[in-house]
Amino acid sequence: MCGGSGPMTLAGAMVVGNAENLATLTLAQLVHPHTPVVYSGWATVMDPVTSRFAYGAPEFAMGANALNAAMANYYDLPSYGFGGCTDSKTPDAQAGAEVMMNCLVGGLSGVSLIHDCGYLAGGSVGSMEMAVIDDEVIGYVQRILRGVHVNDETLAVDVIKAVGPQGHFMSQKHTLDHIRKEIYIPTVFDRTSEATWMKMGKREVREVAKEKARKILKEHYAKPLPSDVKQKIREIIQQAERKLVKLP
Question: Domain of 124?
């Protein structure tokens, strides 16, 4: 942590984190050559006012995601970073801002494994409704990461000519073909008019997320793994037990 277990600068803290990672990766290979590893060299932040670890700091997003992913790419290793986490104690505006920042920076940085969705209070609290909100944020981020594809189909010059001045594109097949591919449609965040929102009870996003979380917990059942996958997992466990457990 900058100013705590590492230098005050992000670059300096990253030097410490990188050295620790290289040491542990080397040890892992000495104990068991070719062991798969995930790089996780984080330069994080100790808040100078509270002395708490700061999940919502912009420096955390840069050090634990951007710098982390950059070094992982340098070593040609997958990386482990952070996404849906915040210092806020409740799913509020602060939580939304910090979660979006961490998820977007992690995604744009190319972090391989993004962790901590649904974490509040600097990782001290887990929240079901925040996890639902995080899922919505991730949908936004995934759409941004897809970018804008430019080709003859998406430029739609022929469609523009066919519609002409003062026309509309709502009845065009091109619109139907691309509407769900081009536009992310939220399921938790509200885009209705003020009048519609008021008629529907003026619910805040936290209320909507809590209701969706309860519905998921009540109704969702995970699809069973295929039998061959189950068998493979059993074989892996049995192999590990034979190596690690000394039977009498």
Answer: 1-147
Strand partners, 80: 113
DSSP assignment of 66-94: IIHHHHHHHTT--BEEE-SB-S-SSSSHH
Give the separation between CA 234 and CA 228, rounded to whole angstroms: 10
89-95: long-range contacts at Cβ-Cβ below 8 A with a sequence spacing of 24 or more? Answer: 89/120, 89/121, 89/125, 90/120, 90/206, 91/120, 91/127, 91/129, 91/130, 91/133, 91/205, 91/206, 91/209, 92/206, 94/56, 95/120, 95/130, 95/133
Q: Does some domain include residue 160?
A: no
Distance CA 218, CA 215 (A): 5
20-79 per-position pLDDT tens digit: 999 999 999 999 999 999 999 999 999 999 999 999 999 999 999 999 999 999 999 999
User: Which band of pLDDT confidence, cut at 50, 70 and 90, is reported for residue 246?
Assistant: low
Does the structure show a pLDDT above 60 at 248?
A: no
Do 86 and 106 form a contact (C-beta atoms < 8 A)?
Answer: no
Report yes or no on 98 lying in a domain. Answer: yes
In a domain, 198, yes or no: no
Q: Please, is 45 exposed, middle or buried when counting C-beta atoms within 10 Å of its C-beta (0-12, 13-18, 19+)?
A: buried
- Count of structural domains, the chain: 1
